[in-house]
Design goal:
This protein has 317 residues and is an alpha/beta fold. 49% of the residues lie in helices and 12% in strands. It contains 13 helices and eight strands. The protein has an eight-stranded mixed β-sheet, with helices on both faces.
Length: 317
């Protein structure tokens, strides 16, 4: 059922932003990668991406070689060819259930039943993904976060027919990769981390669209208020320490007041055209005319600085 404990060659189906990030981290950690992508310039773009990000991977301790080992990357024409020569396959196809199931069919036609398939889906439940598979026990969701070559977290979610040992193997494998995998015990819309993220995003949108504060003030509230604490501890620890020496029991003495704050949250509808107009204006205000490519580079550089300060996925938790 499982690939070898430490597979030698990783297969990648799809080399867009997510697939490129996976390729960079796998090659940085010494794996061979065989990939496929329908774009005619996919290989050129992927090699350029890995070269551009190599210094960042060195700075956070994930790449140990001074130069990109170009021979670690090869391309195949189709998903079946990738699967036939891989020990583990990471699927990064677009968020389309039918398309992903077609990819799995190609993989199952070409690969032995023991080959584990990890999907990078951000929201399709694994039970739906594996519904048409001959060997559904080998399908697991391994959901990374953008940019996937830098952010340590990986969500591991098994479907109703995923073998328990596959989940256990994935947790060990991604830990050894230098990532921080977490097991999501229950299939829910958006999985775990996006649910947490969108709870905050919902309120940020509400505050902007209702004029509670300017877009920049909302950004600053996160960057200089909540963000520094959340870089070193989670929401539950934050709440516990809010009680000082009394901890959570002391915090809960104020439960009725806290409930009022929670109940006051807004529920903006991002499908509403007026909300969309305000969000576009907010984005223009906070980006200040800078090209998005410059902002992406700035984000990645700052993330590297942060990860070097707080430690990568294998550090303290």
């Amino acid at each position: 059922m499982l690939p070898q404990e430490q597979p030698r060659r990783i297969g990648l189906v799809g080399t867009g932003s997510v697939g490129s990030g996976w390729a960079a981290i796998y090659i940085a950690r010494g794996y061979e990668v065989v990939a496929c992508d329908p774009s005619p310039d996919a290989e050129t773009r992927l090699r350029a991406f890995i070269a551009d990000t190599w210094n960042a991977l060195q700075r956070i301790g994930l790449a140990t070689e001074g130069r990109v080992p170009e021979d670690k990357l090869s391309f195949a024409a189709k998903a079946g060819e990738v699967a036939a020569s891989s020990d583990f396959v990471q699927e990064n196809a677009p968020e389309n259930l039918a398309l992903k199931q077609k990819v799995y069919a190609e993989i199952e036609d070409a690969a032995p039943s023991a080959l584990v398939i990890g999907s990078s889906t951000g929201g399709i439940p694994p039970t739906q993904l594996q519904a048409k598979m001959r060997h559904p026990e080998r399908l697991i969701v391994c959901h990374p976060f953008n940019p996937p070559h830098l952010i340590p977290l990986i969500e591991i979610i098994g479907g109703e027919r995923t073998a328990p040992e596959v989940v256990d193997w994935a947790l060990r494998f991604f830990t050894a990769l230098g990532k921080k995998p977490i097991r999501v015990e229950k299939e829910v819309t958006g999985f775990l981390t996006n649910r947490l993220q969108f709870a905050l995003l919902r309120e940020a949108i509400h505050c902007v669209t209702e004029g509670v504060a300017s877009p920049q003030a909302v950004e600053d509230a996160m960057r200089y208020g909540l963000g520094p604490r959340w870089a070193v501890m989670g929401a539950l620890t934050t709440l516990t320490l809010a009680g000082g020496e009394g901890g959570m029991p002391h915090v809960l003495k104020m439960a009725s007041e806290l409930q009022k704050w929670m109940d006051a949250g807004g529920r903006p509808q991002v499908t509403d055209l007026d909300v969309q107009t305000k969000l576009i204006a907010a984005a223009e205000e906070i980006t200040k005319g800078h090209p998005l490519s410059d902002l992406i580079a700035w984000r990645n550089e700052r993330l590297v600085d942060l990860l070097r300060a707080v430690g990568p996925g294998t550090g303290k938790s």
